[in-house]
Amino acid sequence: MTRTKVRAWIVGVVAILVSVVVFLVPFAFVVLQASKSPEDASSLAFTWPKEWQFFPNLIAVLQSGDGLIWRAFLNSFVLTVGSVILMVVLSAMAGYVLARKRSKWGPVVNFFVLAGLIVPPAVVPTIWVLQGTGLYKTMPGMILIETTFGLSFCILLFRAFFNTVPKELDEAAVLDGAGRVRLFFQVILPLLKPVIVTVIVVQSVFVFNDFAGPLYFLPGSDNATVQTTLYTFSGQNLSFYNLLFMDILLITIPPLVAYIFFNRQIVAGMTSGAIKG
Amino acid sequence: MSTASPATARQAADIITEVGASEKNRPRKSRMRSHYPTWFFIPAIVLYVIFFAIPTVSSFYFSLTRWSLFDSQFIGFANYVQFFQDPQLYTSFIHTLIYAVLTSGAKVILGFLLALLLTSPVVGRGYLRAVVFFPVLLSTIGVGILWKSLLDPFHGMVNAVLGFFGLPQPGWFTDPNLALYTIAGVDIWKGVGIATLIFMAGMVAIPTEYYEAARIDGAGGWNILRRITIPLSRGATATVIILSLIGGLRSFDIIWATTGGGPGFTSDVLASVIYKQYQAGFYGLSTAGNVVLFLVVTLIMVPLSYVLNRKQVEL
User: Fold this and answer.
1) CATH of residue A206
2) What is the rounded CA–CA span in Å between residue B286 and residue B284?
3) Which of A143, A260, B194, B197 is 20 to 30 A away from residue A183, measured at CA?
């Protein structure tokens, strides 16, 4: 007993030391860089800041480029909220019918859902479609694109969950006089709270962090999202590493908050999304 | 009975006729069936068709054209010929395969070992789980900038430490022979958390009776690992392989944030070539790259997932 305990301690301590070097030092580097003066930060050394400039740097980033970062955060916020709401509603509806209705189309639908998960989107033809529909370089267009790319994953999650909701419940609701739409939105949907939270958290982090999507389908400085802003910053402001890293720090806050509050849902989403045929 | 509900007359009629029908044959099924409105599919299908299916299908045609988004001129397989003759382009095809296999393999092995560690009773397990998983949630662009600074050949911290110990200080992102592998390393650093998580979920699901029985039969740690943990983690392994291969083959953000495909074209992959050709206005060529990526992904993933899933059933 004591031998295994000693081993648990030794292995644990070694693992913690390794994790400090591999993970914590890089995280700490971001914070230190964000707190330095421009000259201090440009040396890229892992040193204590000569003088702490955390708040001046924060203010400088928030004020840079006529409030570009505010607009970027607003754009990212609108994009994330809009597409995640659409994703949840549309894929819950589709997943519901897919799980409940046994039809000969089932395998075909499954095939297309999996295809949506595997096949890389065709970039330029998508731009062509967006232009044809007048949605290119517009926020609604980008929201619809993110929704489409997230649908497959969400439908799989929802379908797996619907299989655990007993069908008898549907019958009871129908006998009590609920219509088809009411049955879904007032009886079934409230039961889905756990899986909805999972979908919201996982997809929010995903959409918020998406870079290639806005790069292709939402160009233009008015439309900048936080990820494209960070990318432009990194190209221009190589003499202002402190501000660059302050920007990274700011962008990390939303996922960090999500992780702290919804750790369990994120884990559930990442592992159950993996259960697929 | 249904006085409180605002069900329309039509819906009420539906219920009545269905109840009537249900008395004839297979009552439950046919009654319930029509309570799942098929039109619930339609919004999702509309989006899927317009923004995913149409672009995918039309990419096959546009890859055969010289294309300006407004008009296209059919030129046969010229784009593909150019793609596989120009070393700057076809090397990206090879890099994509190297990159995907490397990152996927490393994530399987490292993820498995980490999951083994993090499901065993070690000190500081909660902290370790959190710290391994957190990079998954970070912005890929942010991670790219971070590692570009840490691995800077002249000022970077990693080379400073290596220099301190008198070790060689490679140009991680600037050495043409090394850049692709460095990016793969950063990708593994960021993504190993998901693999670990999936393996952990798999290992936790293995019934403890198996371990107890094995121990009673006198099996040592190595035998337990080889005969129980590894075979019973097959489902998780298949999932990790599939997910990380798909991610690796399509990888773009991390490469664009660190080297932009450079130095030269030594770390270009299919996804970055698609972007570069798009930026240069060669839409037809870019789309041909897209079709090549599509073919690579499906030709690898479809047979692979078939084989991996079949093994699962046999077990």
Assistant:
1) 1.10.3720.10
2) 5
3) A143
C-beta atoms of A248 and B146 within 8 A: yes
SS (H, E, C) B239-261: HHHHHHHHHHHHCCHHHHHHCCC
For residue B140, which residues of chain A lie inside 8 Å, CB to CB? 209, 211
pTM of the predicted model as reported, rounded to 2 decimal places: 0.86
Q: Two tokens at A25? A: 């030092």
* Domain total in chain A: 1
The structural domain count of chain B equals 2
Write the Ramachandran bin of A44: left for phi over 0, alpha for psi from -120 to 50, otherwise beta: left
Check CB contact under 8 Å for A12 and B123.
yes
Residue B202 lies in a domain: yes
Looking at the domain assignment, is residue B194 inside a domain?
yes
- Would A100 be classed as within a structural domain? yes
Q: Is residue A225 part of a domain?
A: yes
Q: Which domain holds residue A177?
A: 65-272
Cβ contacts (< 8 Å) between B123 and chain A: which residues? 8-9, 11-13, 16
Spatial distance between the Cα atoms of A93 and A155, rounded to a whole number of angstroms: 9
ipTM of the complex: 0.87
Is residue A31 one of the residues assigned to a domain?
A: no
Question: Which of B110, B104, B109 has the alpha carbon at shortest distance from B301?
Answer: B104
B62 neighbors B287 (Cβ within 8 angstroms):
yes
Per-residue tens of pLDDT for chain B, all 315 residues: 333 333 344 444 444 344 434 444 444 444 445 667 878 888 999 999 999 999 999 999 999 988 888 888 888 888 899 888 888 888 999 999 999 999 999 999 999 999 999 988 888 888 898 899 889 889 999 999 999 989 988 888 898 889 889 888 888 898 899 999 999 999 999 999 989 988 998 888 888 888 889 888 888 888 888 888 888 888 889 889 988 999 999 999 999 999 988 788 899 999 999 999 999 989 999 999 999 999 999 999 988 888 887 755 444
Q: Does the residue B43 lie in any domain? A: no
Same domain, B263 and B168: yes
B240 is in which domain, residue-wise? Answer: 80-314
Are residue B140 and residue B212 in the same domain, yes or no?
Answer: yes
Say yes or no: B145 contacts chain A, CB-CB below 8 A.
yes
Question: CA–CA separation, B305 vs B155, rounded Å?
Answer: 44
